[in-house]
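Q: How would the structure tokens look for this protein?
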Amino acid sequence: MAAAEPVETRIMKRIFLGPQGLRAGYRAVIFVALALFLGGLGFGIGGRLTAHLGKPGQALQMLTTEALGFLGVFIAASIIALFERRKVRVYGLPLRGAFGKHFWQGAAWGFGMLSVVIACMAATHTYSAGTLAIAGRDIVKYGVLWGLAFLGVGFFEEYMFRGYLQYTLTWGMGFWPAAITSSVLFALVHRGNKGETWFGLFSILVIAILLCTGLRRTGTLWWAVGWHMAWDWAQSFLYSVPDSGTYSYGCLLKSKISGNKWLSGGTVGPEASIFAVIVVAVAILVVAKLYPEVKYPQPDEAPLVTPQPEAV
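A: Here is the predicted structure in token form.
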């Protein structure tokens, strides 16, 4: 008869291991640590590669750093997928459906919603489009570059917060508690943005809930990636307003925001406008209505660490 395990060993197993292996919270911590290291490495390499471009190369610099950052996060998820014996596609970006209908539907939502916010600001005289800031080939050049740059942002931020992290926390606590957790983290990492405010962070939190709703109802991150790209592109390039407090070089218009900060968003830009929060809140309800079926996959029970059977 095998000797009984020491009490301390049994306690440690209960702390770290569940019925399916390592508990979800610890899996999430492992992923975040690995993603921060590899994603940060990608950002660092991208920054070094594009440091000489200066302000005119801002879009290309963002595209490079965000793409390499996403690659780092994807590698982190792929490494853990090997241990978890899962296909990496379950974390939200399957090749089937890549840049398909969900992506373009999300892009239409992002562009349309930001346009409604700008229209409300224009109606309250807190936004003025002004005149063209660039012309000719530069419109096409910067329009395409910023589109690709914000596509990179969409891939990086969505996969970092609503890819593996959302999947694993859902495995441990259910979809919506996991979504609230990932959304709060998503908002908090924007604290360091230039000119950011508490209401701007709240608006980002509401936006994150919308993106989680899109993920839950479509089953993939492609809707959220398309939304993220189009929202940021319309904000930074087309309507030429601050995005989380930052102006983009090569934007289309000499626009101006002014007046009441609750309407204009103040130093943050339209993202911190009360109009944005209202539009996003309404969109959450409409998206849930238009996509009535929950398609987010039920996390499987493949363990990261196989628990040893207790001695009898």
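The beta strands are 17-18, 21-22, 127-128, 256-257.

The first strand starts at residue 17 and ends at 18.

Upvote if useful.
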